[in-house]
Amino acid sequence: MLFGKEHVERYQATDGAEGHDWNGTTVLLLATTGRKSGKRYITPLIYQRHGDDYLIVASNGGSDIPPDWYLNLQSASEVEVQVLADRFSARARTADREEKPEMWRTMAATWPDYDEYQKKTDREIPIVVLERAS
């Protein structure tokens, strides 16, 4: 099973042939800019489509602390995304209260652990919408 740095490397080397399909769901690569370091970080994340957009969840396994990639988005919402061989620029935004319930159902259907993660923390776990740049 792939994860972390090895997952990113195999995904990039094979245009997602290895790493896109993972544990019964699908994974994209998200490149963010470090809010403190200015370095580029690439994270493999479970995703689902929502119209033309892509949804990801800032769960951090149900930790009370958001994942670093989500904190980086607060400083720089312009990101790079790779889905299979498709690499593109996108703008990341947090889903608002009105749209989140439907999006959460979509993401929990693909990865049921998200519901368990939410139960483990008082932090409201955000859904992030990745909108392809035109």
Poorly predicted runs: none
Strand content: 35-45%
CATH superfamily: Electron Transport, Fmn-binding Protein, Chain A
Helical content (DSSP H or I, runs of 4+):
25-40%
Number of strands: 8
CATH topology: Pnp Oxidase, Chain A
Radius of gyration: 14 Å
> What distance lies between the first and last C-alpha atoms, to the nearest angstrom?
35 Å
The average pLDDT is 95
* CATH class descriptor: Mainly Beta
Catalytic activity: oxidized coenzyme F420-(gamma-L-Glu)(n) + a quinol + H(+) = reduced coenzyme F420-(gamma-L-Glu)(n) + a quinone
InterPro entries: F420H2_quin_Rdtase, Split_barrel_FMN-bd
Organism: Spongiactinospora rosea
Pfam family, one: F420H2_quin_red
Descriptive key words:
Pnp Oxidase, Chain A, 8-stranded antiparallel sheet
Notes on the protein architecture:
It contains four helices and eight strands. A hairpin with a 6-residue loop joins strand 2 and strand 3. The model has no long low-confidence stretch (mean pLDDT 95). With 134 residues, it is α+β, with helices and mostly antiparallel strands. It has one domain: Electron Transport, Fmn-binding Protein, Chain A (Pnp Oxidase, Chain A), CATH 2.30.110.10. Strands 1, 2, 3, 4, 5, 6, 7 and 8 form an eight-stranded antiparallel beta sheet that branches. This is Nitroreductase family deazaflavin-dependent oxidoreductase. It comes from Spongiactinospora rosea. Belongs to the F420H(2)-dependent quinone reductase family.
